[in-house]
Specification:
The protein is of the alpha/beta class. The chain has a single domain, classed as P-loop containing nucleotide triphosphate hydrolases (Rossmann fold, 3-Layer(aba) Sandwich). 29% of the residues lie in helices and 26% in strands.
């Protein structure tokens, strides 16, 4: 919070990424952090697993399962592109969210005001 408050004037969202191994408590930490900060500032949370690609692009590809999981699960190049746009003060982006029920990608418009905090969380439902 100290670093966020000292970054005035805010030209872009303050970006914080939470990463770690499965079961490490990332999602719990993010939920607690949001509840602590939500009255002090605007917070947006992006869950990396919302960017999983369609199942046919990540399963039965001919690669070993570990490779499919670590290298084909997400469109890393596009995720980096989107996050670099946010970092460069693009306040409104169209992001490709994965719909688990239909195994399709749905484009959704998101707005990230410059005075907000963007938490990036890797989690699994």
């Amino acid at each position: 919070m100290k670093r966020y408050c000292s970054s005035d004037p805010r030209e872009r969202p303050f970006i914080v990424a939470i990463d770690g191994l499965g079961g490490a408590g990332k999602t719990t930490f993010v939920k607690e952090l949001v509840s602590m900060l939500e009255n002090a500032c605007t917070i947006h949370v992006l869950h990396i697993d919302d960017y999983i690609v369609e199942s046919e692009k990540r399963y039965n590809t001919g690669y070993e399962e570990w490779y499919e999981y670590y290298y084909l699960q997400w469109d890393i190049a596009y995720i980096k592109y989107c996050f670099s746009k946010i970092h460069k003060d693009y306040q409104e982006l169209t992001l490709p969210f994965y719909n688990r029920e239909t195994n399709t990608i749905i484009n959704k418009q998101r707005v990230f005001p410059p005075n907000s905090i963007l938490l990036i969380d890797h989690y699994i439902d």
